[in-house]
Input
Amino acid sequence: MMHITMDRNKYIILIVIISAISLAYYVPHYGLIYDGGLYASLGYSLFSGNGYFFNGYPGDVPPILPIFLSLFIRIFGENGIFLVVPLFSIMNTVIIFLILEKKISLEMSFLGSLYVFFSPIIFYDSINVIREIPMLTFVMASYLIFLRKEDSYKKHVLLGILVGSAFLTKSVGFVYTFPIWAYYIFNQNKKVGISIASSVIFVLPWAIWSYSHFQTPFVSHSAYLLPKIGSNITTFFTRTLPLFLISSFIPIVPISIMGIKKSEKIFLLFGFLIIIPALLWPVQEPRYLLAAYFLIVYLALMYLKDKRKDITLIFMIITVLFQFGTTASILDTHVVSYGLLDDAGIWLRENTDPNSKIMTQSFRQIHYFSHRKTYQIPQDPSLLQRTLEVNQIEYVVIDSYEKTTPQYAREFFEELDPLVTFKDIGGVVNIYKSPYYNSSKVDN
Output
């Protein structure tokens, strides 16, 4: 019987194979969610040479993800956007393995990285065009480089670029990587100046562009929430934290707590800076804690590494299988596919004039797939007719996905015959001709 000896490279190959197969199965089943439509549209704008604009307005989100989306559109076509985040997720899983194996055995590091990969929030974010996974990849890459024993100028330049990339993916990336700079400053490592300077130089073009369009160096479409910081702490403890813990495989949580004494202080500060922004942010979602999955498994394995190997191995196998099963169950029964918006947008692109305008609540996704200017449905019903007439909007898309679609709009258009309907077991999308386009409702 042939015996295969596993080394670091073989484990990395196995991680890539497992994660790629898992993502390849799920990614084609899901379309573009609301935020993803914005990032994809900005990426397409860059690809088409129209600058960093969405719907005629300058982009108000950091540019790293749209830049990667633009690159993949150029290489693979418009569906290339669905490859970007899964590839980041695979890289993130490999990076976590490389961090863990610095302190823990190869087989435990392998299982620990799969625990993170198959955690429900991580996996769901990996199959959607959103910023969390790319941001987390840059953050974890920063810690991997930090843990390298050398202290060269090249290392600090690379660190600065990675920290800058995390920040330019999502602003909280800087908060997550701050412990690295704090460590160097506390230990009076003068080369930290190289890292800081590299980050500043790396983000400077974005700061200049942002200031030229928004009169602020670091524009964010979530900035309107800043005055409300700390206003929803109760929900963190009653909803966000419980959902996160349930999705973490409960038995591993107390074990990770026991591993705190064996952890490097930098990772404890990292954990603190994961919790504080999630606690204070007024919009409460478990995905704002997704970086903590790494800390849970890292602390647990630090505690277990001196225990009986066979028991630890069995426990980690059960943990990974539980995460896999939970994620598969959630995706198959509770997660909505947005794929019909792709079909609706493509129909509009192929069957309407390039200058036609569209109103829909899912205006970001429809904008990307239709290549048409889109408008959101007004929440005030008295503004519907005026908005359609003034902007000469020719088509209206009503879908079952976007829950913020005003009920009055659904009821109004239900009385009209759609031009075309897209329907599957997960939802329905109707495309209507505006009753106020070059005519009145009475004339129709």
Q: What stands out?
A: Residues 440-444 have pLDDT under 50 and may be disordered.
